[in-house]
Amino acid sequence: MVIMKKRLPLAIFALSAAFGASAQYYELANQLPQLLRPALSGSWQYKGFVDATAMAGLGHNRANILSVSTSQGFQYTSWFYMGVGLGVDVAFSNYDGSLSRADVPGYWEHGANKTGAMLPLFTDFRFTFGGASNELSAFIDLRLGATFLLGNNYLEFGNGYLSNDGQFYLRPSVGLRIPVNSSNSKQAVDLGITYQLITSANNYTWGGRGMSLNALGFTIAYEW
């Protein structure tokens, strides 16, 4: 009898917790259509970008970069866009010399060039500030992802080689959004300043496997 008295509060607590969890799941199930309705109704507006960027290399391992890319996604609110994209970066190493290959691990399986094409794959986050969609406004854009040197050859720099393994890719931009069509506020030209970082520990240098490429430049884009 004493044992039953001790277990009764535990049973009541367990039932209360079960009913509470069921109520939470029920509430979540009721809210799910509201969460999905913007996507199903099309109020999350499709949006696309295409851009061209020219950047000058910074630091010891420098590469000037010409880039063309596109981002496709949805305008979730008047100030927030998120999408995915890809591009083609052509990198021109500023190194004028020629490295000895003798001490670079794994290098003999690859040649080396001072010009290389890279394929960035990224998630794109864009925030717009000030003004309606048909007015001049400012933006901050952030791209995060990975980039890959195309082909079998490595890219040669002053103290080593950038390999064709995956590299971390970061590209923030800040600038102005300029509407170009009074009857369609989604169409605009963007002018911005862009920084780009490419880095990983998958490379071959005299100091180890880490290498970073930094570049700063100018971007012009068209959005619709």
The domain count comes to 2
In the sheet with the most strands, the strands line up as: 1-2-3-5-6-9-10-12
User: Structural class given helices, strands, pairing?
Assistant: alpha+beta
How far apart, in Å, are the first and last alpha carbons? Answer: 75 Å
Largest sheet: 8 strands, antiparallel, barrel
- Helix and strand string, N-terminal first? HEEEEEEEEEEEE
Specify the number of helices. Answer: 1
- Stretches where pLDDT is under 50 for at least 5 consecutive residues are 17-21
In percent terms, what proportion of residues is strand?
over 45%
**Quaternary organisation of the protein chains:** single chain
How much helicity do the residues have? 10-25%
- Tell me the radius of gyration: 26 Å
CATH class (first level) name of the largest domain:
Mainly Beta
What global shape is seen?
A: elongated
In the CATH scheme, what's the topology name of the largest domain?
Answer: Porin
Compute the average pLDDT: 82
**Which CATH architecture of the largest domain?**
Beta Barrel
Number of strand elements: 12
